[in-house]
Amino acid sequence: MKIDLEKYGLSPRFRQEATMHEGFFLARVCEQHRDLYKVIGEHGEYWATVSGKLAYNAADSADFPAVGDWVMTDRADDRAGNAIISHILRRRSVFARRAAGTANATQIVAANIDTVFICMALNADFNLRRLERYLTVALDSMAAAVIVLTKADLCPDPAARLAEVAAVGAGAAVVVCSGKDESGCRELLPYLGAGKTIAFIGSSGVGKSTLINRLLGRELLATNETRGDDKGRHTTTHRQLLLLPGGGIVIDTPGMRELQLDRGDLAGSFEDIEELAAKCRYKDCSHTGEPGCEVLSAIQAGLLSPERFANFAKLRKELGYEGLNSRQLEQEKIKRMFGGLGEMKQAMHYAKNKRKR
Question: Which CATH class name applies to 95-252?
Answer without folding.
Answer: alpha beta
